[in-house]
Amino acid sequence: MKIDWAALGAVFGVSLAVVLGLVVLFSLGLRAWSARETAREGGGSAALPTSGAVACLLACVTVVLFGIYLIVAG
């Protein structure tokens, strides 16, 4: 049995980058949702934080669904 260490390292690196990116994207979505609530309580416009939160969270859902697709199709 021979292990291709370069391929294993590449898979690890890509997986780590995607997971970190997904965590940052989800955190930004939650932060924008919090800013939306703050703007609504202060009487300001909540359009920009709402659209930012929706965009970040939809991107997270898209990445997760793509990952599920890769697992099922593979």
Compose a concise summary of this entry:
The protein is mostly helical and 74 residues long.
Please give a handful of descriptors for the protein shown.
Secreted protein; mainly alpha; 74 residues; single chain; transmembrane; 0% strand
Please render the helix and strand layout as text.
Elements: H1 5-42, H2 47-73
Helix pairs in contact: 1-2
Transmembrane segments: 6-30, 51-72
Keywords: Membrane, Transmembrane, Transmembrane helix
Protein name: Secreted protein
What do these coordinates show?
- The chain has helices spanning 5-42, 47-73.
- It is an all-alpha fold and 74 residues long.
- α1 packs antiparallel against α2 (47-73).
- The longest helix has 38 residues, at 5-42.
- The radius of gyration is 18 Å and the shape is elongated.
Strand percentage lies at under 5%
Low-confidence stretches: none
The total beta strand count reads 0
The average pLDDT is: 93
The chain-level structural class is mainly alpha
* C-alpha end-to-end distance: 23 Å
Rg measurement, Å: 18 Å
| Biggest sheet character | none
Global outline: elongated
Count of discrete alpha- or pi-helical segments spanning 4 or more residues = 2
Task: Write down the secondary-structure element order.
Answer: HH
The helix content is: over 70%
